[in-house]
Amino acid sequence: GPSVALAGLTKSYGATRALDAVSLEIAAGSFVALVGQSGSGKSTLLKTINRLVEPDAGGVSIGGADVRDGPAHHLRRRIGYVFQGIGLFPHMTVAENIAIGLRIAGERETRARVAELLALVDLPNDAGARMPDQLSGGQRQRVGVARALATEPGLMLMDEPFGALDPVTRDELGRAVRALHDRLGLTTIMVTHDMAEALLLADRVLVMKAGRIVADAAPAQLARGE
Ligand code: ADP
Ligand code: ADP
Question: Coiled-coil stretches, from where to where (predicted)?
Fold first, then answer.
């Protein structure tokens, strides 16, 4: 996946400064975890990358190109986004939910691609015919990941993807996401409030507080308390 650079990103909501001149370089192909308390600006930072949030100042570039070059919907096809709660459409089957991200004309081609995506996230092919509420929480999160990967993005943004899960499922899904990252050569930025999860999965851990990055280290450094 591509490198990502943030330069002087600032965003306020009224008197709340959600991002305070954040500058950051994320290496191509790395897995970065963004941790910090609720309200520290993690989601806002993530959303400036795929232009769900427009910064007041500063900019974002992906692979050296400014995200404002070109329409936002083109940008978003190159960026997988797994958000909190996942947001599967309850009245659509799993296969239909995944296919939303695809822009393939033929029914047979769509079915083949959905099957590929289900396999990629280790879901059985017959899960495609089910409704989201017929899946476990962990399986639903996997559908969210499959949908995010539908357009073959190089960059994956994940906002508390495992928030609502029990610890065992959480751990299992975390490892699955890391394996996908490695296998597909993605650049991954994952928001989590769980430092243990960040240390386990990421190459680099960024800690946010009040709209700023207050720590930036490799997991081994943080674990030693440096
Ligand atoms: P985090 O993801 O770390 O919980 P957020 O980026 O969601 O933090 O929020 C950072 C701050 O900005 C918080 O104080 C939050 O209430 C505020 N904020 C975020 N989005 C909005 C919004 N759309 N309108 C008003 N305030 C917002
Ligand atoms: P997160 O903080 O991870 O974005 P939330 O559940 O806090 O998740 O927020 C859900 C949505 O509401 C997000 O799009 C966020 O930008 C927005 N939001 C967060 N805080 C506020 C706020 N104080 N006022 C209005 N919108 C907010």
Answer: none
